[in-house]
Write a structure and sequence with these properties.
The chain has 287 residues and is an alpha/beta fold. It contains 10 helices and 14 strands. α3 packs across α5, α4 packs across α5 and α7 packs parallel to α9.
Amino acid sequence: MENGFSNAERAEVLTQALPYIKRYSGKTVVIKYGGNAMVNAQLKEQVMEDIALLWLIGVKVVLVHGGGPEISEMMQKLGKQAVFVDGLRVTDRETVDIVQMVLAGKVNKTLVNLLQMQGAQAIGLSGMDGRLIRAKVKDEKLGYVGEITRIHIRPVTDLLERGYVPVISTLGCDREGNTYNINGDTAAAWIAGALGAERLIMMTDIAGILQDKDDPATLIPHLTLSEAATLYEDGVISGGMIPKVDCCIDAINRGVDSVVIMDGRVPHAILMELLTDEGAGTLVTGG
């Protein structure tokens, strides 16, 4: 007996996971990854273990990542002050160069390397590669913060068909060659929609959508779009949760089967969501 589990108990766990393995094998799952789960080294390794396991059982996983804390850290090292307006980073030309360096460079390649160490085959892309994410200026006062105009999904589908995990940093570009910083949740929703993904998993810093934002015990396990509209009206969905739920609704309207908002700080939350009865976080569906 190792780690408190007998071989029989391990076999039972695997047997219980079988229906879920059948359901998701061959299907596309997009995972949006960022925040505190990305900063903590042990959690990061567990997330990569989850993704590698899904890849090994035949799930077509696409990892879309941010890197806000790493960008802020690099800006501080370079003596540049981070400025935010309505939760969005003001991005001048110097800042967008830093964003590109950190996201498409350090963060992206670190995740690719970690996945490969866990046994998955991964290739890193930015939204600029193959013009995957086409964008335009979102608001002049924000500088090079981009609003997505189009997703050219072919680079991602090519990698999936060849058996790789695409690891995508959320940068965009326009016809003139300008680089844009793209909101990671928005990019994940558009990419998942373009792929017709079975599920989009959004890893956040809270348990999911809460009836009472100060009480994790009030987690809403399942939500339809019509129920979400009521929660907006009642003020239950408010503050920083509004853009998250907006992205869920956008993804479903773009063709994603279902979206989960979950706490990325919980070890192996991805496997709990996809391969167990209970799941994790709040599941948002069309109806």
